[in-house]
Amino acid sequence: MRKVYITGVGFITSIGNDAASVSESLRELRHGMVQYAPFQKADIPVKVAAPIRDFITETTDAEDWVFPARYTIRREALRGMAPHGVYSYCAMQQAVEDAKLTEADWSNPQTGLYAASAGSPFLLGHHLERMRKMGVMRCAPLGVVAAISGTVNFNLVSQFKIKGASAGFSSACASSAHAIGFAYDEIAMGRQKRMFVVGAEDGNVESILPFAGMRALSLQTDPSIASRPFDASRDGFVGTGGAAVLVLESEEEVKRRRAKIYCEVAGWGQASDGYNVAISHPEGTGLRMAIENALNYSDTTVDQVDYVNAHATSTPIGDISEAKALKAIFGHSPTRPAISSTKALTGHGLSLAGAMEAGFCALAIKEGFMPGSAHITKLEPACEGLNIIRATLPHRPNVVLSNSCGFGGANVCLVFRSV
Amino acid sequence: MAQAFNNSSGVQLKPFTSEDDVNLRESLKRCSAASYEAAAQFRKTGNTEHLPAIVLGIIERYVEPDLRAKLKDADDDLRVIEDLGIDSLTMMEIVILVEDVLQMSINNEELRYLRTLGDVKTFIECKVRGLPLPKPTKFLPIEQIMSVMPIQPPFLFLGEASINAHGANAKYKISGQEFFLQGHFKDNPVLPASIMLEALGQLAVLFLLEGQIGEAGKVVDHRTIFFTSCEGVRCHRICKPGDVLILSIKPKRLKSPLATFEGQIRVGQEKAAIAEEITLTFGFAEEVAQPVQNSQSTPVTAPTQAAVNA
Predict the structure, then answer these.
(1) I want to staple A374 with a disulfide (CB 3.0 to 4.6 A). Which of A344, A349, A359, B170 is the partner?
(2) B190: how many CB neighbours lie within 10 A of its CB?
């Protein structure tokens, strides 16, 4: 198996629109929540969200959208994009610049792109409404590719002229973690030498509020405590959107290009709960198996793990089942790893979460810190015995796990190692 | 409520309410003010003179800004895909907006042949007025021109050509290798004016052979085409090796056995030569005795059959 490294990152997130500001927010535990204007209506009990700054993508007409001047997107590209397509495009720009890649590096049969998003319920709703009102022949020609799940890979693969493997991943909140896992496999097995992995979500009314129906969203009105994974008073997650892009490269490519390395992707594991369509297993058995698989695969022992970036979204049930899985793995180990959920700062990015948090782990390893788990005033009793860090630690973790769990009980654990 | 009625252009006119006006403004919000004005006038009066401005305005809105300059002094031969970078998906966007603004529907099959700005304008005018659709512009690469023309190199002065019901256009690049340039003139190669006229005549021959000249079921026999006369020929510009001649001819009168055309040559935007009238004689295939060989299966090979003598 070939070694795989992360050599570039790009972020459009609620806590920063580039790696430098994201890193600063993570260290200083600066969150991205606000009382989100579109939620401030009498019939919407959810008030807080973690929106993307410096972009305006509120209307269904992409030509109205505003984005920072450093990015240019031609109309013919824009017309096939959802809001999160624009975020992805911008994060992709950052990632190729960060990895110092030229077009010849990324547009070849050995370079692929895996992506994950839930599509754009916002645009899908708009286009279906237009179809019903104006008739099927007046549907926008690119409405489908802008709106359906897969829109991120459709757009980026064509616009960046990707010639290698490309696919979209759909396992809800584990989607982009799955994308990283399978991208790792492509390189480890020698089928590709470079993979882009993209996670993205609109993070607007239509992508967040449907979760209110299953009572998964926090009803807190105070943005500074709405997302508080592992806190006893947590009451649901806070929605967010954005995009994160990682560049994964083989050892040979890293050497050939003399590329800067964030960390090694040491391996991954997955397992499923086989339990409930939307509720995680109460004992966290699927996640526990995913972590075990990841550790076994990557030849990592339990006591080597320094930091775990938890999936914990701040829901009452989910956080406990993850705590139980972590206890089952680390409970009897003398050196317990530091654990935190950065969703306290970013909110829950759904299909974006896995790639975004893997990007955070890459920053933490390269820059030498472990972000704290913010907004905990009283620790959830089920988490007693876990080393959940409340403040950022200024140490470089050598081995890092990143967990992601999705609907249907899909669980993914990624392993990163410093070099 | 006003009733729907037909006006002189044959356009079905529906009442144009203030709500329609709001929708029209919204639909055309990214087009020039002139396109909105033209569209509003058209919707109120049914006057088809406004159609070109509407269609151009809508196309312009979908052309990337760096290519819009091409539309400024565009002739009807500007190609939608090759010159304006409009792909089939953008064409659909244009169609949907045109449908919306002109209150009509267009089906996919009808779109396939719209290759030039002129095709689009003509197509929409015919649709709006309920007239039968014209045959689309035909594009002929040099290989195809050589296979139909009785005139062959080194005396063929047409490159790629396009032909529709209203005329024909072609390009010819003066390579500098033309045999007569050695002596015309000594150490100073200049395309002879007679060759310019010859090139226009050749394009007229191509039009007769490939165009739709109206008489049902009849095919012009290439062996029957000869030069008859020309009038009002004026040259405006010296043409030299490297220049690309843009040739165009339009039929003025077409009635067997005579076909009269007006012709023009440009180089870039500069007028190079005009001919007010070029007249050829021609005949249809069944009017001449057929040789033993089937002329369809053997392309013309003998340059000695060159039919146009300028």
Answers:
(1) A344
(2) 14
